[in-house]
TrEMBL record:
Lineage: Bacteria, Bacillati, Actinomycetota, Actinomycetes, Micrococcales
Name assigned to this protein: HTH araC/xylS-type domain-containing protein
Residues of the HTH araC/xylS-type domain: 1-45
Superkingdom assignment: Bacteria
Keywords per UniProt: Transcription, Transcription regulation
InterPro entries documented for this protein: Homeodomain-like_sf, HTH_AraC
Gene Ontology MF, one: sequence-specific DNA binding
Record bears the keyword Transcription: yes
The keyword Transferase is assigned to this record: no
């Protein structure tokens, strides 16, 4: 779910459903419990923070 939050603009409910959660609200609560922030906050933070790159 975290990867999709970072790489798509899909609604959080659609992402939750696509990864197998039947209840998007429950998925959001579990995400917050696991990651420490809500899915929307995670998306905002990950968009504001550039991904690390590995030089070749």
């Amino acid at each position: 779910m975290a990867d999709l939050l970072r790489t798509t603009v899909d609604p959080i409910a659609a992402i939750a459903t696509s990864v197998g959660w039947n209840d998007p609200d429950f998925a959001a609560r579990q995400f917050r419990r696991s990651v420490g922030v809500s899915p929307s906050e995670y998306r905002r933070i990950s968009r504001d923070t550039p991904l690390a790159t590995h030089p070749e």
